[in-house]
From TrEMBL:
This is Neprilysin-11-like protein. Residues 229-433 form the Peptidase M13 C-terminal domain. Residues 4-162 form the Peptidase M13 N-terminal domain. One of its GO terms (biological process) is protein processing. InterPro entries: MetalloPept_cat_dom_sf (IPR024079), Peptidase_M13 (IPR000718), Peptidase_M13_C (IPR018497), Peptidase_M13_dom_2 (IPR042089), Peptidase_M13_N (IPR008753). Pfam families: Peptidase_M13, Peptidase_M13_N. It comes from Leptotrombidium deliense. It comes from the Eukaryota. GO terms for cellular component: plasma membrane. Belongs to the peptidase M13 family. Keywords: Hydrolase, Metal-binding, Metalloprotease, Protease, Zinc. One of its GO terms (molecular function) is metalloendopeptidase activity. Its cofactor is Zn(2+).
Length: 436
């Protein structure tokens, strides 16, 4: 929202919901109807699920034909900037209880009959005790399983945007990238020494069965075909419109730049099908064990390598270690995405995109095409975050941006070769973690 159009659009949005006290000159609490604002925001931009939440989910992880609409517990938490100032569990619990009391008091007045502070405190304390007991119940399935619903969500606007903002050439080029990255992963699977032949065949079958959609499926324009599409959901990769923009994709840019940015992102998502969670599902998206026991042990050893490597990484701004266990799935995907994107870049360039004389101008002209690839990869993660945000990011399933660049590059033999990194140096350690 840095340009005039952005400010104007934001101003119109706030007017629609009744204003905003920080930017509205004559603000009056009595004139603000938070219920209308809530409904407008939820129905127009689908941005909040504070009091009411809903989603489509699978009936069972082993059943891909039946779906239900469920009402999960909505997100209901104190803002991250406030919670980051609290360090002890007691402080956080006290703040959470106070916050819930205020919200309950607000909601209790909707029908005109407000609850007393004593009744509110009793209800909140009972709720806290219930949540403590509920959290202690042992789950039979992994927590990650509950997030595995293969549901496609596409707004009408997305298809219209694709027609007006994305040319056929952009989609055609990214489609070519995707096919070549899958070819690269096929090569990786077939040439590795740690998998048995049957498991390789199962992995290849899963990769072959992976459906992919760029921007939106063609069926989105035809209601009947779209209904049929939803009846038979399967293992699929969706590349949404937002990633087909800078800094991930520049139409007409050197192949090294585009393949490094959007190619590694596409490779990242494909690799998720074979990370520590995705590897538990077969080619139909059903939870099945398709691994030979010995191969599975080799796989576990390689996964542990990533856990140790990332756990030893210290985020420079906070001085804290990355949680290697929490982030391992994303780290596997980052490394696999980079490795297969580089191989795809070499294959695609040799066959379809020679670029004999194409170089960047000025000082960037001194870099080779291979070096440009890795520079563009780092550029895609370029960010400048506050210490508070970085502290929060350390609790995310993704590693911090600097780790997502540095560690995959340290594991890349191709990077060390491109920049002539001496073996044993920081960017070319002797012990590397390699899986896909």
């Amino acid at each position: 929202f840095k340009d005039d159009y952005g400010y104007e659009a934001l101003h119109k949005f706030f007017n629609k919901i009744g204003g905003y006290p920080m930017i509205t000159e004559k603000w009056n609490d009595a004139n603000f109807d938070w219920q209308n604002a809530y409904v407008y925001v939820d129905t127009h931009i689908n941005a909040i699920k504070l009091f009411i939440a809903y989603q489509v989910d699978r009936v069972s992880l082993t059943d891909k034909t039946h779906f239900i609409i469920v009402g999960p517990q909505p997100g209901f938490h104190i803002g991250s900037t406030l919670i980051s100032e609290l360090y002890s569990n007691e402080d956080k619990m006290e703040a959470e209880i106070k916050f819930r009391k205020k919200v309950k008091k607000l909601l209790s007045g909707i029908g005109g009959d407000k609850l007393s502070d004593e009744l509110i405190e009793r209800d909140i304390n009972a709720l806290i005790e219930f949540e403590k007991k509920f959290a202690s119940i042992e789950q039979q399935s992994e927590a990650a399983d509950t997030g595995e619903n293969f549901v496609l969500s596409i707004e009408e606007m997305q298809n219209q945007y694709k027609d007006t903002e994305l040319g056929d050439q952009s989609i055609k080029e990214v489609n070519g990238f995707l096919r070549t990255i899958k070819d690269s992963l096929t090569l990786t699977i077939n040439t590795n020494k740690w998998m048995d032949e049957e498991t390789k065949q199962n992995a290849q079958l899963k990769l072959n069965r992976m459906l992919s959609y760029i921007a939106s499926p063609s069926q989105v324009k035809n209601d009947e075909e779209l209904d049929e599409f939803y009846k038979h959901l399967s293992f699929q990769l969706e590349i949404l419109i937002g990633i087909l923009l800078k800094p991930h994709f520049y139409l007409g840019a050197p192949l090294a730049i585009n393949m490094a940015a959007i190619g590694s992102a596409v490779g990242h998502e494909i690799t998720h099908g074979f990370d520590n969670t995705g590897s538990q599902y077969d080619e139909q998206g059903l939870k099945q064990n398709w691994w030979d026991k010995q191969t599975q042990r080799h796989y576990g050893t390689k996964v542990n390598c990533f856990i140790r490597q990332y756990s030893n990484y210290v985020e420079p701004k906070t001085g804290k270690h990355v949680d290697g266990n929490l982030t391992v799935g994303e780290n596997i995907a980052d490394n696999g995405g980079l490795h297969n994107a580089f191989n795809a870049y070499k294959i695609y360039g040799a066959l379809k995109h020679p670029e004999t004389d194409l170089k960047l101008p000025n000082q960037m002209s001194r870099f080779t095409k291979d070096q440009l690839f890795f520079i563009a990869y780092g550029n895609a993660f370029c960010s400048d975050n506050s210490k508070a945000y970085t502290n929060l990011a350390l609790t995310d399933v993704h590693s911090p941006d600097d780790a997502r660049v540095m560690l995959p590059l340290q594991n890349s033999k191709e990077f060390s070769k491109a920049f002539n990194c001496k073996q044993g140096s920081r960017m070319n350690p002797v012990n590397k973690c390699i899986l896909w």
